[in-house]
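retry 2 of 3: previous attempt timed out while embedding 6-O-phosphono-beta-D-tagatofuranose. Reduced batch size to 1 and resubmitted. Inputs unchanged:
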Amino acid sequence: MAAATSVVLLDRGNNTTCTINLHGATVVSWRVNNQEQLFVSKAAIFDGKAPIRGGIPVVFPHFGPWSYGPNHGFARVTQWGVEKRPERLPSGDVEAIFFCTDNEWTRSIWHYQFRLTYRLILREKELHFIIGVYNPSKDVTFSFNLLLHTYFKVPDVRRCQITGLHGCTFIDKTRDMVIYQEGREAVTIGEWTDRIYQNTPQEHIITNVVSGRKMRVQKYNFPDTVVWNPWLDHSKDVPDLGEDEYPNMICVESGHVSSPVVLLPGTAFEASQILQVM
Ligand code: TA6
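retry 2 succeeded.
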C-alpha cells in the first residue's frame, strides 16, 4: 500500500539517519552512530490510517480527545507532502521540508484553511524541528494546539530523570485534571504518568536514555512539556502497544497545549525543538 510505505530518509553519513513516514510526517527513526533514539512499538500499525504508535507524531490542531475529529487532531493521520527532498547543506547537515494543507476531509472536521510546514535538519548528534502554521484566510482567525509527541527509547524508564520541571504547575490527567506544582528537582516515573507541565523552561535533560547517555531537549515557542508513560495498567488500553513495552519508552513532548495559539488571518506561527544526544 503506497501510503503505508511512503518514507523519506535523511542520511548524514556515519550511520546517522532520520526516517520520516509521510503518514503524519511521523519521524519513525533517528539513529545516531547506528543507535536508535526513538521508541516505536512492535505493535505499531502502518496501514496509512491509524496514527503510528511511537516516533514523533505531530499533534495538530487539537491535543487530546476532540468532539469534532480524531484524538490529537488530524495532522498525524494525514498524508503529508514533500516540499524539499533531503539535501546536504554546506555544513554537512541534511535538511528536508514537509508540508500539509487543509483538504475536503480536514475542512469537514475543522472548517479552516491552513498550511503546516515542517523542516527537519539532521546534524551529527542533533535533530532540529522547525514547524510553522500559516493561516491563509483573508478574514478568519483560528486557534489550535500543536505538539511534537516524542517517544524516546530508553532501557528502563524507572532510571530516567527529567530536569527543568521543578516549580512548574502541571495538569494531572491521571487525577481528573487537577493542577499541582512540581516539587522535585528531577522528575522520575514509577507509575502511570500523564501530565501537562505549564510554562516550562526552554531546556530539559533526560538521563539514562539509550546507552546510558543524556538527551537534551530544547524548545522555542512551545510553552508546555507533556510527560507520559501508560505503565502496565494503561498499556492495556492502548491496543497498538505491547504490555511489556512501557519500560522502554518515555514521552517528553514539547507543545502549545494548555492554552491555544490564536492565529490571525494572513499570519504565521512558528515553534521549534532541538534534540541532542549528549
Ligand atoms: O501526550 C499524552 C497523551 O495525551 C496521553 O493522554 C495518552 O493518551 C497519549 O497521549 C496517547 O494518545 P493516543 O491518542 O496516541 O493513544
